[in-house]
Amino acid sequence: LIKCAANLSACYFNDGAMAYFRVMDTMGVPLHSNGLKILHRINEDRIREAEMATTEESKKKRVAKRVSRKKKMELQKKHEETTYKAGAVGGDKGDDDGEE
Question: Comparing C-alpha atoms, which of 15, 41, 9 is closest to residue 33?
């Protein structure tokens, strides 16, 4: 079963959703027009997403998102370093009995 799944995955990677049709056809399982339409739509969506991922604008957005996440993580790390140092919270080094 695992071998079959791996082979189907390889077929899908190489040939798209229509690979499922060829496998089912080879096995003698009929696939009607609605099934073919669905496989074509899956292929079109997959190709469209792949093309979008390779556009220059998409690349710029991914880079900007990565830079933004990195800056956010650096700020968070800097804040945590300040927060966890001795005496960093409260600023009052006297007794903390609630009275001033």
Answer: 41
Closest to 23 (Cα-Cα) out of 47, 3, 4: 4
pTM for this model (two decimals): 0.41
Q: What is the pLDDT along the chain (100 residues), one digit of tens a residue?
A: 888 888 888 888 877 887 888 888 888 888 788 888 888 888 888 888 888 777 878 888 888 999 999 999 988 887 776 666 666 555 444 445 544 4
Residue 17: HSE in the Cβ half-sphere, 13 Å Cα cutoff? 14
Rounded CA-CA distance 73/63 in Å is: 15
